[in-house]
Amino acid sequence: MNVIVSITGATGSIFGIRILEILKDIKEVKTHLILSSWGKKTLEAETNYTMEEVEQLADFIYETADLGARISSGSFQVDAMIIAPCSMKTLASIRIGLADNLVSRAADVILKERRKLILLTRETPLNTIHLENMLALSKMGTIILPPMPAFYNNPQTINDIVNHIAYRTVDQLGIILPNLKRWDGLREK
Ligand SMILES: Cc1cc2nc3c(=O)[nH]c(=O)nc-3n(C[C@H](O)[C@H](O)[C@H](O)COP(=O)(O)O)c2cc1C
């Protein structure tokens, strides 16, 4: 299974990193990483990971400017693309089909080939443009998965919250992860 993972310049680059860490342990998955230039900047500002450490988590890496990359073409078989986090700028460019960098071009290809696109859209509060862009892409089958914390699993640390969202994202690929705490109905304490 080929999965494109992109980290763009919204806050929460740790979500993309954690998703890469989970996918690295899954033998049948090959990851293709695209870091936007603002994705790189937020990652450096928000995490203790170096760029090299993040790049080593992926099987293949690409430059955002490289519109000649194989993932820029529908003839290369990719199963899914996850953008985590997805900035409102990247969301907008996908919605209008801009395809002016490898992130929006690869997403455009995913949509035209009717493959799976998962967007961890991150902004708050949301304006009408953001909401309309998400609605338009959702109507085309895109999974809009804002990284919103859940509390029913009693997270104790930020790491617990990040992991839960990363597991829920990987769940969307149809990969069953034993670590995901699933809601099993209300029980008496
Ligand atoms: C520290 C930091 C945090 C940001 N957080 C967000 C955010 O949560 N959501 C968002 O849409 N943009 C956010 N931005 C702005 C984007 O980085 C900016 O719109 C950029 O053009 C996105 O480009 P890209 O999608 O190509 O990475 C943030 C910028 C910085 C420097």
From TrEMBL:
InterPro entries per UniProt: Flavin_trans-like (IPR036551), Flavoprotein (IPR003382), UbiX-like (IPR004507), UbiX_pad_YclB (IPR032901)
GO-annotated molecular function: carboxy-lyase activity; flavin prenyltransferase activity
Gene Ontology biological process: response to toxic substance
Pfam family, one: Flavoprotein
Catalyses which reaction(s): dimethylallyl phosphate + FMNH2 = prenylated FMNH2 + phosphate
Domain Flavoprotein: 1-168
UniProt keyword annotations, A-Z: Aromatic hydrocarbons catabolism, Detoxification, Flavoprotein, FMN, Prenyltransferase, Transferase
Keyword Transferase: yes
Enzyme Commission number, as recorded: 2.5.1.129
Cited function: Involved in the non-oxidative decarboxylation and detoxification of phenolic derivatives. Flavin prenyltransferase that catalyzes the synthesis of the prenylated FMN cofactor (prenyl-FMN) for phenolic acid decarboxylase.
HAMAP family in alphabetical order: ubiX_pad (MF_01984), ubiX_pad_yclB (MF_01986)
Self-association state and partner proteins as the record states: Homododecamer.
Record family assignment: Belongs to the UbiX/PAD1 family. YclB subfamily.
Protein name (database record): Probable UbiX-like flavin prenyltransferase
